[in-house]
Amino acid sequence: MDIDWGWIGEHTDTLTEHALIHLRLALLPVLFGLIISLPVGMLCRRWGWVYPPALTVSNIFYAIPSLALFMVFIQYTGLTAATVMIPLTLYSLSVLVPNVVDGLASVSDPVRQAATAMGFGPLRRLLQVELPIAVPIVIAGTRVAAVSSISLVAVGQLIGQGGLGYDIIRGYQLQFQTQIVAATVLIVLLALVTDAILVTVQRLLTPWARARMTS
User: How much is the pLDDT for 62?
Assistant: First the structure.
């Protein structure tokens, strides 16, 4: 395979612009999914009967092909970024909701009872005890959702909103492998960098884990 390094050098600015668009289209849905999943996960932990239907609904959305969802939403949001981000947000729920529930479930009853005995109310106990303990499991789900979203965004180019997906499709149309390879490598790099950043965030939010590893 011959790579035209000169073309890559000449189009660095364009590729960078497409990469930034790709990140925005991929990561905002994960953020929105996390914002939705946290209260849903809390409700599922408080009322166990909520969890099965919530999980079923999120899995149904995940089972629908992305292109089919794009076609549904395009009738309401047109050829806009929202048409890509809404389905990706729905896809993220199938990963994030179970991880939030599992993270909160990982908090043992003695820990909750100790917090209550120290005078922590339900909200304070949730924010200062339960969520911090749940962070590693929630971040693990966020990493999966983020990497999946970065990969799926490229499909959005079929409606004109794909970031680096543009370069993949354009390269295919022109039979120009350099453009395809450059875009694919950038997508992989974006996924790896995003994953590394989330690992760093997890370590910053769980200093006790670092201290335990050091000891």
Answer: 87
> Which stretches of the chain drop beneath a pLDDT of 70?
1, 208-215
Encoded tokens for 184: 């694919």
pLDDT given at position 45? 86
> What pLDDT sits at residue 15?
92
Q: Residues 98, 37, 72, CA angle at the centre, nearest 5°?
A: 100
Listed in sequence order, the residues at least 6 apart from 163 whose beta carbon sits closer than 8 Å to its beta carbon are 18, 19, 21, 22, 23, 24, 25, 26, 153, 154, 156, 157
Dihedral over Cα of 38, 40, 43, 49: its sign: negative
Structure tokens given for 48:
């166990």
Model pTM? 0.88
In this predicted structure, what is the pLDDT of residue 211?
54
Among residues 91, 93, 83, 90, the alpha carbon closest in space to that of 156 is found at: 83
